[in-house]
Amino acid sequence: MAARRVLVAGGGIVGLATAWKLARLRPGTEVVLLEKEPGVGRHQSGNNSGVLHAGLYYRPGSAKARLAVAGIREMVAFCAAHGVPHERCGKLVVAADESERPALMALLERGRANGLAGLELLDAAGMREVEPHVAGVAGVRVPEEGIVDYPAVCRVLAKLVQDEGGRVVTGAEVLRLRGGNGSGWTAETRAGDFGGDFLVTCGGLHADRLMAMAGERPDVRIVPFRGEYHVLKPEREHLVRHLIYPVPDARFPFLGVHFTRRIGGGIEAGPNAVLALAREGYRRGRVNARDLADTLRFPGLWRFAARHARMAAMELRRSFSRGAFARSLQRLVPEVRAADLAPGGAGVRAQAMRADGTLVEDFAFAERPHALYLLNAPSPAATASLAIGGEIAARVVLQLDT
Ligand SMILES: Cc1cc2nc3c(=O)[nH]c(=O)nc-3n(C[C@H](O)[C@H](O)[C@H](O)COP(=O)(O)OP(=O)(O)OC[C@H]3O[C@@H](n4cnc5c(N)ncnc54)[C@H](O)[C@@H]3O)c2cc1C
Question: Which of 140, 181, 302, 387 is paired with 58 by a 20 to 30 Å CA distance?
């Protein structure tokens, strides 16, 4: 087997998992991971809800369903093996009133079809045994799900890549990609030039730009959606034991504001979903002229906005009004008041959108000779990262060996 060098651009959890799987799957493969930040996992992978999702929501047969179910089991085993803080505390999905019951039952069916273990349908009294302060008419308990320290997963993966002989180069923003016609790739980065036989991009919020740098025309655009969190004040944390989620609106890939116990302590509420004015816009006022122009020039955005104007207005109201945020949460836990909430952090979701304004729901990548571009890896890609990485690595190895 000839030694080959694979360049992996992007040191989030998916790029790291891909690099590790590649190094293990094909001994002799030299993996070089290029990350633009001074450390790994600084974007979506380090600014998310920290939840292990088991695959309740996803269409049976989709890559999300398949890779979330396999991925959560692999991730839990990985965390146990490598001493990463995690806990399988279970999640409760709540139908706030009778109008949400059919959608809750549909979720239960999906979960069963996807092979989730131990799903339980609870009535109001049964829910309150699990979460004493919860309201609603019925709920589904998902015992396999839990919470985890994803930044710690990223750090462990970076070490494992290096233990396998690979390199993790930080501060190496890829600025240009040359070659790719079978005679090898050169990545020009802020840390120098790196050559390789195969290119994998896992660029998260910049996934489309990395693919374009390689001379391709991606048929989707990354649209950044900021998710803002509040935290429950310590004296009100007793209102939530574990994870309490609403029945999501099936028209969107976002799960709706929910309560999450953090692995490091504390209860978070959120995230909402508002259009971000910068791909890395973690603060509300942050604007990046290039990102904003890219988003506003994209016809898909206007088609999406026209179709979902009411939802967008509601999300904006919730972004600016703690009262409106609290009212959404009260559908789950009526005792929560606006005064119980303090501002928390924020994350930005990389969501691929088509020019017709529809969102790409499933995980998506484009495979070419000598290259593979990951284009859509939204939630639950952190949970599923090891399974996604395994799948990408297998495809790369197939190309390298044929
Ligand atoms: C608010 C929020 C909540 C979420 N909650 C959950 C959850 O609870 N559970 C779950 O499973 N998933 C959750 N997700 C989704 C999950 O975080 C992502 O699916 C996952 O982190 C994607 O990983 P990634 O490696 O593809 O992307 P990222 O983590 O964004 O990594 C991409 C990397 O590429 C680098 N990069 C970009 N351009 C370049 C370049 N030119 N050169 C070099 N490097 C570059 C970036 O710096 C970055 O480190 C959430 C996401 C958000 C935003």
Answer: 302
Query: Phi and psi at residue 78, in whole multiples of 5°?
Result: -60, -45
> CA-CA distance, 368 to 394, in Å (whole number)?
14
Answer for the pair 286, 224: CB distance below 8 angstroms, yes or no.
no
What does the pLDDT look like over 140-181, one tens digit per residue? Answer: 999 999 999 999 999 999 999 999 999 999 999 999 999 877
User: Is residue 254 domain-shared with residue 326, that is, in the same domain?
Assistant: yes
Tell me the CA–centroid distance for residue 37 and ligand 1, in Å. 13
Ligand 1 midpoint to CA 13 (Å): 7
Whether 166 is in the pocket of ligand 1, judged by its Cβ within 6 Å, is no
Whether 159 and 180 map to the same domain: the answer is yes
Indicate if ligand 1 lies below 6 Å from the C-beta of 9: yes
Ligand 1 site, residue 14, Cβ cutoff 6 A: yes
Residue 297 lies in a domain: yes
Same structural domain, 303 and 316? yes
Q: Are residues 228 and 344 in the same domain?
A: yes
Number of domains, the chain: 3
Q: Residue 156 domain-assigned?
A: yes
pLDDT digits (tens, 9 = 90+) for 379-394: 999 999 999 999 999 9
Domain that holds residue 367: 4-46+151-219+361-400
Please give the model's pTM, rounded to 2 decimal places: 0.96
Q: Report which ligand 1 atom has the smallest distance to the Cα of 378.
A: 19
- Which atom of ligand 1 lies closest to the CA of 45? 21
d(CA 278, CA 69): 32
